[in-house]
Design brief:
The chain is an alpha+beta fold. It has a single domain, classed as Glutaredoxin, CATH 3.40.30. 40% of the residues lie in helices and 21% in strands. The chain contains four helices and four strands. The longest helix has 12 residues. The radius of gyration is 13 Å and the shape is globular.
């Protein structure tokens, strides 16, 4: 869903998508990315330090940060229509 409908659609407008392998090693993260055919980057976060800055304990968790590093969205709930509106607003 994120791969096709969001990343592929908005990458030419400057959208960067990163997945974070929370408390996983590089091998597991690479395997997961390959299994899901991801073309965006997967960051390994073995101690969960990156996730602690933004997440609440639930996975997946979504954070949208613009080019000026302003956080526009930080939530665990996935509401596609709302997510798309925020992406459109910050990539225009």
């Amino acid at each position: 869903m994120i791969e096709r409908e969001i990343w592929q659609r908005f990458q030419d407008k400057g959208l960067k998508v990163l997945a974070i392998g929370v408390k996983e090693n590089g091998e597991k993260a690479t395997s997961w990315a390959f299994h899901h055919r991801l073309t965006y980057s997967v960051i390994v976060d073995p101690e969960g330090k990156i996730y602690q800055k933004y997440g609440t304990g639930s996975v997946p968790y979504h954070v949208l940060i613009d080019k000026k590093f302003i956080v526009h969205l930080s939530q665990e709930e996935f509401r596609k229509e709302f997510l798309m509106k925020v992406i459109q607003a910050i990539t225009e």
